[in-house]
Design goal:
Elements (H helix, E strand, L loop, with lengths): L14 E6 L4 H12 L4 E9 L4 E10 L6 E6 L1 E2 L2 E2 L9 E6 L7 H9 L5 E5 L16
Antiparallel strand pairs: 1-7, 1-8, 2-3, 3-4, 4-7, 5-6
């Protein structure tokens, strides 16, 4: 009897921007709301179950009313551990699920200008080792 293996390729149809900030998650969310006109609200924590421990990471989400782009701010560093161990030097991740065009230079300038944002950088999702943490919305 022959066995067949089903291979499933995940689709990563979103962008990731990593953010450096020394502020608490709720203060950064407030600053982004103020600067970009968003309405980030706290949602259920992202939970990452590792071999040795389970970590909880604060998440804030909003949907742009015009183009329906979904923005999710995720706390990368907690005392329990990291959400994305590939990116230990960054404090937060901004997941952008776009329904239209990619963010332009003006968007990145506004993001950089927000209070408490020290630095931002786009990441290639396909190069991240733990990218599966970004797929499961129940986390």
């Amino acid at each position: 009897m022959a066995f067949h293996t089903l291979e499933i390729e995940e689709e990563y149809d979103f962008e990731i921007i990593v953010v450096s900030s020394h502020e608490k998650d709720y203060r950064l969310a407030w600053s982004l709301n103020k600067t970009l006109g968003w309405r980030l609200v706290r949602i259920a924590d992202a939970v990452v179950e590792g071999k040795r421990s389970t970590t909880h990471h604060a998440r804030f989400r909003c949907t742009h009313p015009v183009d329906q782009t979904v923005f999710t701010l995720i706390d990368n560093n907690t005392p329990e551990g990291m959400f994305m161990p590939d990116l230990p030097q960054f404090d937060y991740l901004l997941k952008i699920e776009m329904s239209g065009d990619e963010p332009d230079d003006e968007f990145y300038q506004q993001l950089r200008s927000a209070d408490f944002v020290l630095a931002i950088q786009r990441q290639d999702v396909n190069k991240l080792k733990h990218k599966n943490h970004l797929l499961d919305e129940s986390r």
